[in-house]
Amino acid sequence: MREWQRVARLLALGTPGAAIFAVFFLLPLVMVGGEAFSDHGAAFARLAQLDLFWPGLANSLLLGLAAGAISLAGGLMVAWRLSQMNAAARTALLFLIALPLTFSGLVVAFGFILAFGRAGFVTLSLERLFGVDPAWFASLVYSPTGLALVYSYYLIPRVVMLMLPVFANFDRVQLAAAESLGAGRWRAIADVLVPQVLPTALAAFCLVVAVAFGAYGTALALVGSQVNILPLQLFTLVSDAGTDFPLAAALALVLTALCTAAMSVGEVVVARRQETVDDR
């Protein structure tokens, strides 16, 4: 193939993606950035002086880390079990596990309200069977802890999708070899399995933390303004008539920067792991 033909093919393949990236990411980002700095950066100073901003930032970080930790633990167990199944069973279960990824945050929140709300099926069943106070049980769903668990519902499939190839390609003979040389079961896992899956697990954790940090639909439907997190603050600033748009744009940039930073940590870990493998 001639050089100009190779260049033409690369341009033909890359142009649609570049156009989508420019229209749906770069252009909105430039517009938001322009709005945020329209008053020469004073919006960021006003944002830092808001009484709700710093508690909201702390709550968002705690919520993201909690949902990420729960999702990582659940996703690792599910992916490990799936990797031990035959291909047919794994494909069927993987289809079911991936279904939550197709649901919007509002649909997920509505489903949890129907199941675990004050008049939910699970809540009323627990009241009849064990005498559980429905008001107390339902309040758990509408708390930050409940919000972290609800987030995990659609974050665990993301962890499973990332970790399943790692577990499926892991050679379990290495564990048997370590145990035959005198290592205990947990020592073999710590010395053989963990180093191989840790980079991908960290990348998956960073991904779900970033998703949980920026999510607002589920939180809005479940807790409304009862929980102070940054995405709900942004929603309030954008939805209020006559709002301070530079302030909303500044908050949007802060959210984008924090989510990007979390994702970057995961990418750096995976890149360093790949460099180590290539050097061997």
From TrEMBL:
Subcellular location(s) per record: Cell membrane
Segments forming domain ABC transmembrane type-1: 57-266
Single biological process term from Gene Ontology: transmembrane transport
Broad class of the protein's primary localization: membrane
GO cellular component: plasma membrane
Residue spans crossing the bilayer: 7-32, 52-80, 92-116, 136-156, 202-225, 245-270
PANTHER family (alphabetical): INNER MEMBRANE ABC TRANSPORTER PERMEASE PROTEIN YDCU-RELATED, INNER MEMBRANE ABC TRANSPORTER PERMEASE PROTEIN YDCU-RELATED-RELATED
Family note: Belongs to the binding-protein-dependent transport system permease family. CysTW subfamily.
Protein name in UniProt: Molybdenum transport system permease protein ModB
Species for this entry: Blastochloris viridis (Rhodopseudomonas viridis)
Gene: potB_1
